[in-house]
Amino acid sequence: MLNFALGPVMSSDLVLDIGSKQTPYFRTPEFSKVNLENEQLMKELLHASDDSRAIFLTGSGTAGMEATVMNVFNENDKVLIVNGGGFGQRFVDLCNLHNIDCDEIKLEFGHCLTHEKLYEYDGKEYTAFLLNICETSSGVYYDINLISEFCKKNNLFLVIDAVSSFLADDLNMVEHGVDVVLTGSQKALACPPGIAIIVLSEDAIKRVEENDCKSMYFDFEDMLINGVRGQTPFTPAITVILQLNARLKQLKNDGGIDEEIKRISSLAEDFRNKITEFPFEVKCKCLSNAVTTVHSNEKIEANIVEILKNEYDIWVSTARDDLSETMLFRVGHMGDLSPEDNDTLIEALRDIQKRGLF
Ligand SMILES: *Cc1c(COP(=O)(O)O)cnc(C)c1O
């Protein structure tokens, strides 16, 4: 099986081996050490300040999104949300559900965030800015430098969902003035799903402490207190935490985040070059390194995603055809993939083309 889906992704043998072991008991000094190490490694990878903290929440990425909305915002906030697709809409829905006042910068699906569009919202009464830095449904990456500058100028508390972008695109919490970054175990971290990671700046920690979170399981303050001794309030996805530990250490030893970003971006570039031989189109000019969304201007009857899965044992992600009429499929570049794996996918597409299916 070869997996180019947008999470879960291919894991290394190191991570797979840990998954085959018995799950250890977790109220131990040994497991506390693992948690403390993971916190430190995540802070390093995101260039977070020394006083920032990382939370490892058992749940999928959306648990991290919802818990963040519940813990860092309150009724005094007015949040500006970039809504360019499925995940932006999820933040709008979450703010509405939790009675957080918000406005959305509604972007056409697959379109970049421009300076002109963003500065329509300059000098207004907002307190915070919320976005998915890679909108995985379209593959669009929003320019971090543009956003960072805007938020600094308007003194906005900046919350970034980098679930699919972390390790694929550049992100520096201190330099870019980011207050919260969230990600998940099953994207470029290349572990099984189960852990959402939320990194909080000092200002974010202050917000958490001052807020009254109406949830027992999602209470960040409780998690931060327990985290000081390397523990969690409730049973975590222990095996995934052990897998993350191995993966994070490996990333650090292999040259850190810059090397991984370089590796993923060169895989993306390689794939985008190779796909040009087909009657497909990579339309978007601001794609994240994590994903390539492939379009076709002709109507193709064959379901390429299904054919690849059933007949070639290759998995790609389905298109959001409810949001785009021309999108065929999405190809991820995260995880344990190589340029040779790109060749295998291209070969399979050639074969499907030879069979006259597109
Ligand atoms: C994958 C992803 C998530 C999390 O989705 P889950 O299915 O809840 O893990 C959140 N935001 C973005 C941008 C994503 O790509």
Task: Give the topology.
Elements (H helix, E strand, L loop, with lengths): L1 E2 L9 H7 L9 H17 L7 E6 L2 H12 L5 E6 L2 H12 L3 E6 L8 H4 L9 E5 L1 E2 L4 E2 L2 H10 L3 E5 L18 E5 L10 E6 L1 H9 L9 H8 L10 H16 L2 H19 L16 E5 L8 H9 L1 E2 L1 E2 L8 E6 L6 H16 L4
Parallel strand pairs: 1-12, 3-4, 3-5, 5-8, 8-9
Antiparallel strand pairs: 2-10, 6-7, 9-10, 11-14, 13-14
The protein binds pyridoxal-5'-phosphate.
Care to count the β-strands?
Answer: 14
Average pLDDT number: 97
Order of helices and strands: EHHEHEHEHEEEHEEEHHHHEHEEEH
The end-to-end span amounts to: 23 Å
Bound molecules: pyridoxal-5'-phosphate
Structural class: alpha/beta
Detailed description of the structure:
This protein is α/β, with parallel strands linked by helices and about 350 residues long. Helix content is about 40%, strand content about 15%. The chain has 12 helices and 14 strands. The protein has a 7-stranded mixed sheet with strand order 2-10-9-8-5-3-4, with helices on both faces. Strands 11-14-13 form a 3-stranded antiparallel sheet, with helices on one face. α4 links the parallel β3 and β4. The protein is globular and about 60 Å long. The mean pLDDT is about 95. Bound molecules: pyridoxal-5'-phosphate. The site of pyridoxal-5'-phosphate has 14 residues, from α3.
